[in-house]
Amino acid sequence: MIGDVRIGAQVHIAPGVSIRADEGMPFYIGANVNIQDGAVIHGLEQGRVTGDDGEPYSVWISDSASITHMALIHGPAYVGKVLYWFPFHCV
Fold first, then answer.
1. Which of 25, 47, 83, 86 could join 76 via S-S bond, C-beta 3.0 to 4.6 A?
2. Per-residue model confidence as pLDDT tens for the chain (91 residues)
3. Going by C-beta distance under 8 Å and a sequence separation of 6 or more, which residues neighbour residue 48?
4. What's the order of all strands across the beta sheet hosting 66-67?
């Protein structure tokens, strides 16, 4: 994990996950989120989404979302309260 990443309570980040807010930032990962093995989350320098708090983010992942094994989320991206599975690719 690198960069400005804001993480809520009770978040599970499994081994092998890459969370890179090194270009686009900030990221928001809500409470009770489950990010499984091998997922990659990366944001671009340009482009933003509006989080539920009204602020701009490179990546917003809502509370209680589940990001499954090997998922790729490439921001700017807004991920709601859903289940994303391999080989899902969010751009």
1. 47
2. 999 999 999 999 999 999 999 999 999 999 999 999 999 999 998 999 999 999 999 999 999 999 988 999 998 999 987 665 555 545 4
3. 24, 56, 57, 58, 76
4. 12-13, 34-35, 66-67, 83-84
| Token representation of residue 35 | 């990010």
| The amino acid at 91 | V
* pTM over the 0.85 mark: yes
DSSP string, 13-44: E-TT-EEEESSS--EEE-TT-EE-TT-EEEE-
Q: What CA–CA distance (Å, rounded) separates 49 from 14?
A: 25
